Amino acid sequence: MIEVSGLIKRYGAALAVDGLTFAVPPGQVTGFLGPNGAGKSTTMRLIVGLDAPDAGSLTVNGRSYRSYRRPLFEVGALLEARSFHGGRSAYNHLLCLASANGIGRNRVAEVLDLVGLDRVARRRAGGFSLGMGQRLGIAAALLGDPGVLLLDEPVNGLDPEGVAWIRALLRSLAAEGRTVLVSSHLMSEMENTADQLIIIGRGKLIAQAGIGELLAAGSGSYVRVRSPQAGELAALLETSGATVTRQDNGTLAVTGASTDTIGELARASGLTLAELSAQQASLEDRYMELTRDTADYHSAAAPTAAGK
Amino acid sequence: MATAVTARPASAAAPPSGGAAAHAIEVLASEWNKLRTIRSTWWTLAAVAVFNVAGGAALGIVLPKMLSASQQASHRDPVQLALIGLHVSQISIGVLGVLIIGSEYSSGMIRASLAAVPQRRLLLAAKTVVLAAAAAAAGVASCYAAWFAFGLFLPAGSPMRMPLSDPGVARAVTGAGLYLAVLALAGLGLGAVLRSTAGAITALFGILFVPSIIMQLLPSSWQDTVGPYLALNAAEAVYRVPQAPHFLAPWTGLGVLCGYAAAALTAGFILIGRRDA
């Protein structure tokens, strides 16, 4: 369990985290989403005590990170890539970290196996690809077999097989009852992995919800209705309080009434339904909608008429 | 690569139960592992040994051929000749001291280190202890080796032979080795303050060499009062055998050097606890 409350962090004049409050429950994969510069990495650095907050509180399993004598047993963190010395072998890098918390060599060998680096364990980590570096960072996070995992953009630089591996790993860690917080700036990386999402923008919480809830609340969800008596049906629905938009191809886009209600209404009035289907916006659409106003760096609108 | 994921293995389930002392030993072990698993440690220590020993051996070979017997007999301090390599080896050991922390910042390792040991001052203390031990061992051993190499090549009966039992000789050789260790610690302190290898190396050798150069431009009364306390002169006080005016007593000189290192380390200890990593 990670609990963040009223968190504020400034770097000079820039307000990186602005009153953030959220909790990350165990047993789930929680996606931590936001555009670049939203404050995700800063929040993670604050959780593991690398930076000190200007205000607010942060606890991991009820205690501040810095109060743990052997924190690798509580929290495993993959922060920005390349938190290792390129001159050390993967094995020695992990040994240096493990020995600081009284973790033995057997466990170092185990995590190297687990992340698939066992065959290159004796090679200098400086020669590792981005993906191998990420695996080394994940191995370090797993050293103490911690109940809480914190991963900042873990799929960066991984090939598709690596991405699938990370997803399976995160899901299984959560299934074992661990708290798993994974950051990303891409919704597409999260929709198949996360159970719930924390979305932030410009250091502020925008939404925290399960994936289903988030979709249902979006403005992009509506019910599509096709009927030979579309006019009558539309009038009927509007009377019942729903909002109906007539589309060019003759179908109706209805919001404010569920498929159940519409079907029942049609039957009661003896109207024929040719189609009745719930339409959901994609998570990607929903994410864009939520973060549109907070993205720090917008692309300029594409020019429409060239060469004028 | 494997896609297997395992359940919590029993081997790593529970943290060691030891208290603060046991934890401090773990952090020391970690810092020792860091020091020994990096090539630059062995390169810089090898350079210290090579410069010291080769310097002593070279003068032991060359001087008897270059100097007349009376010149040899009248040389005021043959031990300084044996330790001629210090002029270069001090640079190597200073670089080692800076690198032990500077490389953590330049590589990003510091993030992983502080995540494993959030007790930052304990981390820096462990680095200090491990570096002090390694640098003192390498410094003292290589200075004795330099003294031995110098004597090895001198002809039998050379007036430049200075047995360790002569007054001040063992002190000068030991002191030279300890000077190297203190210099390494000053490098560590500056590295912790500046968090940059290049910056800390520049600062370390700036503080070591530049004041002596400036001092030569100042009035002689200044040279006499401030001069002995400059790092390079305090160091010479430690490893010169004959006492001389305008030099501190040997152990006072080492004390002054320790003061320099302590100032840098104190600043490092204060800042590492306060700053964002």
Commentary on this structure:
The complex is a heterodimer of chains A (308) and B (277). Chain A has 308 residues and is of the alpha/beta class. Chain A folds into 2 domains: 2-216, 3-Layer(aba) Sandwich (Rossmann fold), CATH 3.40.50; 222-283, Alpha-Beta Plaits. In chain A, 31% of the residues lie in helices and 26% in strands. Chain A contains 10 helices and 13 strands. Chain A has helices at 40-47, 90-100, 105-114, 130-142, 160-175, 187-190, 211-216, 230-239, 259-268, 283-291; strands at 2-11, 14-24, 28-33, 55-60, 75-78, 148-152, 179-184, 196-201, 204-210, 222-226, 243-246, 252-255, 275-279. Chain A has a 6-stranded mixed beta sheet, sandwiched between helices. A 4-stranded antiparallel beta sheet of chain A has the order 11-12-10-13, with helices on one face. A 3-stranded antiparallel beta sheet of chain A has the order 2-1-4. The N and C termini of chain A lie far apart (58 Å). In chain A, 44% of the residues are buried. Residues 302-308 of chain A have low confidence and may be disordered. By secondary structure, chain B is mainly α. Chain B has one domain (22-274). Chain B has 12 helices and no strands. Chain B starts with 19 loop residues before the first helix and ends with a helix. At the A-B interface, helix 2, helix 3 and helix 5 of A face helix 1, helix 5 and helix 6 of B.
What are the key terms here?
heterodimer, A: about 300 residues, alpha/beta, Rossmann fold, Alpha-Beta Plaits, 2 domains, six-stranded mixed beta sheet, four-stranded antiparallel beta sheet, 10 helices, 13 strands, about 30% helix, elongated, B: about 280 residues, mainly alpha, 12 helices, about 75% helix, about 0% strand, disordered N terminus
